[in-house]
Amino acid sequence: MTTLKVLSAGAVKRGVSRIAEEFGRATGTTVTVEFAPVPEVRKRIAAGEAADVIIATPAAMDEFVAQGKIISDSRGFVGRSRMGVVIHADEAMPAIRDTASFTKVLRGAAAVVHNEASSGLYAAKLVEKLGLTKELASRMVVVKGGAAVMEYVAAHPGAVGLAQISELMVLIDKGCAVKLAAPLPDDIQNMTHYDAAAVSGAPATAIELARRLASVDAKKIFAETGIY
Predict the structure, then answer these.
(1) How many Å apart are CA 185 and CA 117, to the nearest integer?
(2) Which domains, and CATH codes, for the chain?
(3) Mean pLDDT of the 55-82 span
């Protein structure tokens, strides 16, 4: 029996898990999936960790192509994730209609939380762009991954998290005491794209799985999880 290992960005967890499970049943392949922030995926692949399929941002994939680590013609677009504002489940819903109202929410937050991954890097730049870096310096909290953003907000009422909406949905499904206040306003929204590809030297079933993850049928599954 063929065994495949998938190393994936966490934002696409729900869709990837479902597709990998369905692929395994249909092909008799054992598929294991590990999720990590994209910077960690980069480090692990650069360090020589074995995997058969990778799901990461285009920038990371471009690096892997340059390094000869993935099969270029197996690479395909999985989907994109939007960012949202996360608050404690018991908090009143703030009115976030535009950038001004979003800025007001950040200024009133007990803490502003983001992660170390791609979305977190964007969040840090956004705070700087809005001219809030000094004002929020003592209230900025940086955690490792998307799940940690939601866990922090759940444990600290009054905190505001900036995270991928798809990751938020995963934690809500698990009973985490958080909710989506609103997506980021359109003019400051950040779309993170994700690609899938088979790793160089991986078996043919890995190429098949990578292409399945980027298929039209997969897009329908990902859309149900907040990835479009």
Answers:
(1) 21
(2) 3-80+193-224 (3.40.190.10), 83-188 (3.40.190.10)
(3) 97
**3-class DSSP assignment, residue 173:** helix
Rounded to an integer, what distance in angstroms lies between the CA atom of residue 45 and that of residue 72? 16
Write down the pTM of the prediction: 0.84
CB 6 within 8 A of CB 74: no
C-alpha distances in angstroms, 61 versus 8, 105, 135, 199? Answer: 12, 35, 36, 11
- Helices 165-173 and 13-27: angle between axes, nearest 10 degrees: 70
What is the Cα–Cα distance from 85 to 104, expressed in whole angstroms? 13
Q: Would you say 150 and 171 are in contact if contact means Cβ atoms under 8 Å apart?
A: yes
Structure tokens at 38: 């994209």
pLDDT for 1: 72
Between CA 207 and CA 49, with CA 211 as vertex, the angle to 5 degrees is 50
pLDDT for 226: 86
- Tokens 């998307």 correspond to 146
Bigger pLDDT: 226 or 69?
Answer: 69
pLDDT at site 117: 87
